[in-house]
């Protein structure tokens, strides 16, 4: 109970669909164009009072469904809650995509006859199973900023600090302070609380 | 910007009028959001389309393009009617409000609703909230400026603030959002054809001052012009230079001393970001020489058919050079070089120095950087200094010369210190802490002396001049038609020796106004007035006495040297409401307007445009691109977000023309030009308007011109430039194009 | 004491301010009505369903099939033993070249598809990586020959595969395989067991092809499917995954059965699909109805 659990939170009262997060991620990890580890989604565009934008990537779930369904067991969940996977083990079957509620797994069309290559997803800038900060790790998984004590690049670049990342408790504190300052207006309930913890 | 971005967090009500900070200043938009969060501020957005900023607004009003003056008069009408105006402020510090009051009587909510399309209840709601939640700040950008009446728009907005007493207070002010970083700096340095740097104008006196400061003879400068009279005339503008090129078809008389433009040098500017692309192309085609200095291939090279004498010079980017930049809130920062110029690219200054060397005026060009003031108010060459240190010496030269806006305190050393210690300044007020105490971040001008800490909020009389306080400038005389133009008693900066208003300080009146006696040495060293005083004694004496060197006058609501003394509504040249165009007609045509004839009424009354071109056309920016998009469309990730030129169109309008989402469509302009773009169904626009971004180039009226790119320089995305179809229309004073108010006709491609 | 109670009330009050009042745009009542969340009411809940099935059950059920079905047949072989028929009698040409080629292609395909399918299911046992990836690629590759022959095979044996009254009686005695006797069994050219295998192989096979293709191509856009089912792309993929696995149980179980029957339970039966000739004694006992018909036609 003393361990930090790393989580993302996107405050949709502040998200303005500037796409700074998705571009920063693509640049920092030199992703091929078309693989969007992080996407910004806008719904109800043009409807006053209902337009809303939010930034979505892998949410690093505590009970990660992707990890549960993988036939080759290539996922591993770090002690701090970050969910990562081994691209060398991955066979590109797609099960993790079916299980994920957020559509985080992405597949490049790498192989012959359009076969799916190994899955790629947000790593919360924590690299992969290869040697930390090695060239190989950077090539396959992108930067390992967590190992250097740096903030994941999407939240670091967020124009309005809508996207928060860090220990779940710290993130909650930041968000709670905002909600209180707003006097309860705007978004005020964390993701899925009423769904995840609803008493049936 | 009279206040600052951080200061917005102190506002209780914010009106964003013709600006879109969520898209164009995404990081700065944090301050708006924090104002909402921390200060319970009401965010009001008034815009023809439901922008990303509008999505975060508490109240949103959809307004017909070009009808901002009726809306603001509608607000003033209600303010005066309900007695919400700040009577004391108006009496003491404003001249001519009565005329505004008179005009405002005509603009009842019902009339406003008819003209602007904003329902009466919404106007009342917005005005009530804005008037009852002070201080309120008014934000604007191109939405107000890019009209034929842009100058009137940007006068009525401050008048609105003056009526509510929102000027010169923290959380108030007119916070105009400048578009690119350092465009404020470019303005301050006079990169326009109607002034020397620092807003000194073009009078002979100013030329003589600069001649002295640059270490050259006045007559030498005169010899570079046809004669002295031409030195003092405005030049061409970016909007209409093409009219001065021989061979360009236009029926407009050019006042260019009987000659034509032969060559154009473009340094880092998007030629396609200005209206009337077809005419610009003609201008380019007919020039004798075009030089384009840019890190990426300027789209002008692609647009023109000219095959010879088109030169592309590789200019370095901002990362490969260093120097002073000025932010939208008038503050200075130092930009450091992080990498040496790549390949053969040269920083802009080196390009200009090389040009100056070959044209034979390099010495005259650079002498100013080898000079300094003497103790007795004169200028001298710095002994033993043979070469200048760029950019520090240039920065110090600017600080030495530009006194009109008080850049005296902007030495390279001070500015660097601020940038290096930006963590020592408060986010909201900019006030320094620890070693930086007493200074405001970036020393916002006016920064009167090398010890002054900058002036974060303009016109604030609640603080002494030494800490950034001041009244309104005395620039238009002491009285007019019997009415005192100076501030009334009781309205002066705190700590002022003088009670009430006073004129701008000159050598002649300083002893009388300040009630001091100068010594003989001081008299000898002192310059004629505070703007040309190398000794800076005038400024120092003023600050000692708590007096602002530029005077303490009333802000004037009447500008008697403008065509419209008070702002008046005039319909855009291409108005969808022909009946209103007759009721509120455009200006008379203006000859010799920056050397060209600018047509107004003759264009507006030439046809019933609304019949054949019934759709409003609004252009604007995208968050992932800027300017002509030359740089951004060469970045794969930015391009991937908006890979094609598009037109945002309401599904109702689109489907009436059989245009499905993703279909190609033609947009025709009254100029006779047309572009082929992809339709994007969107609810952010009304069914009587379309929106297009202006960041694309490479296609012209359906034709693909990207074959003109040198090998390997073609950007990832190319498309039509919307400025091929933006309509004719230019502001009466500044000649900025009317790209925010035009008409078009659409059809399925 | 009072102080603490006041503090508690204040704290609760503040907490409700933070979490009460207006709902979030996406997660509360205000949200978009037609995007159904992952596990919400009214959604098909295929996401959680797939996750649970794949996590807990699929691999185990496949293991049960892999061990149980051959295990059961092993016991059968030991206890009851194979049916042996002499090979000296007259033969009838039952399967022509076309039949046999089509069947062989399908057989070879199955012989690659099924083991590779198992390698994928038990991927972690094999350590993932290149081996399992290769298996996945072969699994998909050999779908192609099967796809080519499945319709021809369906058509060429359709008549013989239709169920009739004989099959009910056949099922009641389980084809006579539970006794060592050689009594004539009611069956046409194909007995009920073979017919069952036919339908599972054809219909099940086509289902496996389609669901497999959906998972392989991921971003197939079939308007028809969307309009028919009203399901979103991701839900269609999840359904495909579930169907592929469940159908897989049946196909694998019956495939093993078919192999046992044709290669072990009836000695020498496999030759009939290699040479095309069936034995008179075998037909007389195991396909008595067909034998009578052939006799009447003078084939025997």
Structure notes:
The complex is a heterotrimer of chains A (200), B (749) and C (300). Chain A contains seven helices and six strands. By secondary structure, chain A is of the alpha+beta class. Helices cover 28% and strands 15% of the residues of chain B. Helices cover 68% and strands 2% of the residues of chain C. Chain C has helices spanning 2-19, 46-79, 97-121, 129-141, 143-156, 158-161, 165-172, 192-217, 223-229, 233-265, 271-275, 280-286, 288-297; strands at 91-93, 277-279. In chain C, strands 1-2 form a two-stranded antiparallel sheet. The longest helix of chain C is centred in the N-terminal third of the chain and has 34 residues, at 46-79. The radius of gyration of chain C is 28 Å and the shape is elongated. Chain C starts with a helix and ends with a helix. Chains in contact: A-B, A-C. The interface between A and C is large, with 50 and 50 residues.
Q: Helix tally of chain B?
A: 28
Class based on secondary structure composition and strand pairing of chain B: alpha/beta
Largest sheet of chain B: 6 strands, mixed, barrel
Number of beta strands of chain A:
6
In what order do the strands lie side by side in the largest sheet of chain B?
A: 19-23-20-22-21-27
Shape label of chain B: globular
Taking the alpha carbons of the first and last residues of chain B, their distance comes to: 44 Å
Q: Identify the most extensive interface between protein chains.
A: A-C, 50 and 50 residues
State which percent range the strand residues of chain A make up: 5-15%
Brief overview:
The complex is a heterotrimer of chains A (200), B (749) and C (300). Chain A is of the alpha+beta class. Helices cover 24% and strands 13% of the residues of chain A.
How would the blueprint of this fold be written?
The complex is a heterotrimer of chains A (200), B (749) and C (300).
Chain A: E1 6-10, H1 20-28, E2 39-43, E3 52-56, H2 65-69, E4 75-77, E5 83-85, H3 95-99, H4 135-141, H5 153-157, E6 163-167, H6 168-181, H7 193-196
Antiparallel strand pairs in A: 1-6, 2-3, 4-5
Chain B: E1 13-17, H1 21-24, H2 29-39, E2 42-47, H3 52-55, E3 59-62, H4 68-81, H5 87-93, E4 94-95, H6 97-106, H7 109-116, H8 120-132, E5 136-140, H9 142-145, H10 150-163, E6 174-176, H11 183-188, H12 204-214, H13 218-223, H14 228-231, E7 263-267, H15 277-286, E8 289-294, H16 300-303, E9 310-314, E10 323-326, E11 332-335, H17 348-359, H18 362-366, E12 371-373, E13 379-381, H19 392-401, H20 412-420, E14 479-480, E15 483-484, H21 510-514, H22 520-525, H23 537-544, E16 555-556, H24 578-583, E17 590-593, E18 596-598, H25 601-604, H26 609-612, E19 615-620, H27 636-641, E20 646-649, H28 651-656, E21 664-668, E22 674-681, E23 689-693, E24 698-700, E25 703-704, E26 719-720, E27 742-748
Parallel strand pairs in B: 1-2, 1-5, 2-3, 4-16, 5-6, 7-8, 8-9, 19-23, 20-22, 24-26
Antiparallel strand pairs in B: 10-11, 12-13, 14-15, 17-18, 19-27, 20-23, 21-22, 21-27, 24-25
Helix pairs in contact in B: 4-6, 4-7, 4-8, 4-10, 7-8
Chain C: H1 2-19, H2 46-79, E1 91-93, H3 97-121, H4 129-141, H5 143-156, H6 158-161, H7 165-172, H8 192-217, H9 223-229, H10 233-265, H11 271-275, E2 277-279, H12 280-286, H13 288-297
Antiparallel strand pairs in C: 1-2
Helix pairs in contact in C: 2-10, 3-4, 3-5, 5-8, 8-10, 12-13
């Amino acid at each position: 109970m003393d361990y930090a659990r790393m989580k993302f939170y996107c405050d949709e009262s502040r998200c303005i669909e500037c796409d700074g997060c998705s571009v920063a991620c693509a640049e920092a990890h030199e992703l091929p164009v078309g693989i969007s580890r992080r996407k910004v989604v806008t719904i109800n565009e043009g409807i006053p009072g209902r337009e809303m934008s939010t930034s979505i990537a892998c949410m690093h779930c505590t009970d990660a469904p992707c990890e549960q369904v993988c036939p080759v067991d290539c996922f591993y969940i770090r002690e701090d809650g970050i969910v990562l996977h081994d691209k060398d083990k991955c066979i590109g079957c797609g099960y993790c995509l079916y299980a994920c509620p957020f559509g985080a797994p992405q597949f490049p069309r790498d192989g012959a006859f359009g076969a799916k290559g190994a899955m790629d997803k947000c790593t919360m800038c924590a690299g992969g199973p290869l040697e930390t900060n090695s060239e190989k790790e950077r090539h396959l998984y992108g930067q390992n900023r967590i190992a250097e004590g740096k903030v994941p690049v999407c939240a670091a670049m967020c124009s309005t600090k809508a996207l928060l990342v860090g220990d779940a408790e710290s993130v909650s504190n930041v968000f709670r302070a905002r909600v209180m300052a707003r006097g309860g207006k705007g978004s005020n309930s964390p993701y899925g609380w009423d769904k995840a913890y609803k008493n049936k | 910007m009279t206040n600052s971005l951080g200061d917005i967090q102190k506002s209780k009500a914010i009106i964003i009028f013709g600006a879109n900070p969520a898209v164009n200043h995404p990081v700065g938009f944090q301050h708006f959001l924090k104002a909402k969060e921390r200060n319970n501020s009401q965010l009001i957005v008034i815009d023809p389309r439901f922008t990303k900023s509008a999505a975060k607004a508490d109240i949103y009003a959809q307004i017909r393009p070009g009808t901002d003056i009726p809306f603001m008069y509608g607000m003033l009408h209600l303010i005066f009617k309900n007695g919400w105006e700040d009577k004391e402020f108006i009496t003491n510090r404003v001249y001519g409000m009565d005329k505004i009051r008179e005009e405002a009587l005509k603009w009842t909510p019902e009339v406003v609703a008819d003209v602007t399309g904003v329902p009466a209840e919404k106007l009342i709601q917005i005005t009530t909230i804005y008037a009852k939640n002070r201080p309120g700040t008014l934000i604007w950008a191109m939405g107000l400026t890019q009209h034929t009446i842009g100058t009137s728009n940007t006068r009525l907005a401050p008048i609105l603030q003056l009526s509510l007493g929102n000027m010169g207070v923290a959380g108030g002010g007119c916070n105009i959002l400048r578009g690119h970083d350092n465009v404020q700096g470019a303005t301050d340095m006079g990169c326009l054809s109607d002034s020397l740097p620092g807003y000194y104008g073009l009078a002979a006196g100013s030329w003589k001052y600069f001649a002295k400061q640059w270490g050259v003879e006045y007559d030498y400068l005169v010899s570079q012009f046809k004669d002295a009279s031409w030195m003092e005339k405005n030049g061409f503008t970016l909007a209409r230079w093409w009219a001065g090129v021989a061979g360009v078809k236009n029926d407009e008389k050019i006042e260019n001393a009987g000659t034509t433009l032969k060559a154009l040098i473009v340094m880092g500017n998007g030629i396609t970001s200005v209206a009337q692309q077809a005419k610009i192309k003609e201008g380019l085609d007919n020039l004798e020489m075009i030089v384009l200095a840019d890190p990426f291939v300027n789209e002008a090279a692609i647009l023109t058919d000219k095959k010879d004498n088109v030169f592309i010079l590789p200019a370095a980017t901002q990362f490969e050079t260093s120097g002073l930049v000025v932010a939208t809130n008038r503050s200075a920062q130092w930009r450091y070089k992080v990498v040496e110029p790549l390949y053969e690219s040269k920083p802009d200054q080196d390009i200009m120095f090389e040009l100056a060397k070959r044209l034979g005026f390099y010495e005259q060009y650079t002498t100013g950087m080898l000079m300094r003031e003497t103790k007795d108010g004169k200028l001298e060459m710095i002994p033993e200094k043979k070469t200048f240190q760029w950019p520090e010496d240039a920065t110090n030269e600017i600080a030495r010369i530009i006194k009109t806006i008080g850049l005296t305190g902007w030495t390279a050393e001070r500015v660097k210190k601020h940038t290096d210690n930006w963590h020592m300044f408060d986010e909201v007020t900019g006030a320094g802490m620890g070693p930086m105490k007493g200074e405001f971040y970036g020393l916002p001008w006016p920064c009167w002396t090398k010890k002054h800490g900058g002036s974060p909020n303009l016109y604030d009389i609640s603080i002494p001049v030494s800490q950034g306080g001041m009244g309104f400038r005395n620039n238009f005389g002491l009285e007019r038609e019997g009415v005192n133009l100076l501030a009334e008693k009781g309205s002066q900066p705190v700590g002022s020796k003088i009670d009430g208003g006073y004129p701008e300080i000159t050598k002649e009146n300083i002893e009388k106004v300040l009630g001091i006696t100068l010594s003989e040495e001081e008299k000898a060293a002192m310059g004629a007035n505070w703007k040309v005083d190398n000794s800076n004694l005038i400024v120092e004496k003023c600050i000692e006495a708590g007096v602002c060197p530029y005077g303490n006058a009333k802000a004037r609501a009447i500008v008697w040297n403008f065509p419209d003394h008070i702002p008046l509504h005039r319909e855009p040249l291409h108005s969808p409401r022909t009946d209103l165009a007759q009721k509120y007609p455009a200006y008379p045509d203006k000859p010799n307007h920056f050397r060209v004839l600018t047509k107004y009424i003759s264009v507006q009354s030439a046809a019933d445009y609304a019949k054949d071109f019934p759709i409003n056309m609004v252009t604007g920016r995208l968050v992932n691109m800027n300017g002509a998009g030359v740089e951004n469309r060469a970045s794969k990730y930015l391009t991937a977000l908006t890979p094609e030129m598009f037109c945002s169109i309401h599904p109702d309008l689109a489907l009436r023309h059989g245009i499905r989402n993703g279909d190609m469509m033609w947009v025709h302009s009254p100029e006779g030009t047309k572009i082929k773009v992809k339709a994007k169904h969107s609810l952010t626009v009304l069914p009587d308007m379309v929106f297009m971004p202006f960041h694309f180039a490479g296609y012209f009226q359906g034709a693909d011109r990207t074959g003109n790119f040198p090998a390997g320089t073609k950007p990832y995305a190319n498309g039509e430039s919307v400025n091929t179809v933006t309509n004719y229309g230019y502001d009466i004073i500044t000649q900025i194009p009317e790209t925010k108010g035009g008409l078009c006709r659409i059809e399925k491609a | 004491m009072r102080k603490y109670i006041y503090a508690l009330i204040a704290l609760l009050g503040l907490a409700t301010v933070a979490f009460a009042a207006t709902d979030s745009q996406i997660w509360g009542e205000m949200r978009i009505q037609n995007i159904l969340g992952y596990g919400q009411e009214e959604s098909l809940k295929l996401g959680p369903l797939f996750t649970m099935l794949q996590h807990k059950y699929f691999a185990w059920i496949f293991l049960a099939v892999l061990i149980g079905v051959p295990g059961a047949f092993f016991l059968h072989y030991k206890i009851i033993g194979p049916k042996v028929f002499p090979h000296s009698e007259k033969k009838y040409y039952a399967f022509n070249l076309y039949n046999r080629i089509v069947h062989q292609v399908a057989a070879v395909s199955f012989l690659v598809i099924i083991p590779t399918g198992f390698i994928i299911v038990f991927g972690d046992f094999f350590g993932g990586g290149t081996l399992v990836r290769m298996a996945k690629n072969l699994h998909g590759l050999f779908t192609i020959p099967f796809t080519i022959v499945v319709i021809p095979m369906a058509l060429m044996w359709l008549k013989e595969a239709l169920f009739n009254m004989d099959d009910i009686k056949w099922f009641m005695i389980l084809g006579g395989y539970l006794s060592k006797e050689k009594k004539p069994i009611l069956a046409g050219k194909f007995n009920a067991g073979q017919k069952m295998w036919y339908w599972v192989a054809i219909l099940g096979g086509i289902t496996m092809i389609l669901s497999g293709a959906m998972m392989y191509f991921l971003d197939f856009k079939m308007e028809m499917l969307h309009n028919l089912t009203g399901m979103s792309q991701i839900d269609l993929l999840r359904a495909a995954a579930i169907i592929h696995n469940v159908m897989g149980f049946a196909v694998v179980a019956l495939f093993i059965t078919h192999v046992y029957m044709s290669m072990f339970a009836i000695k020498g039966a496999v030759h009939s699909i290699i040479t095309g000739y069936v034995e008179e004694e075998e037909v007389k006992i195991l396909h008595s109805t067909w034998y009578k018909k052939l006799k009447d036609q003078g084939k025997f």
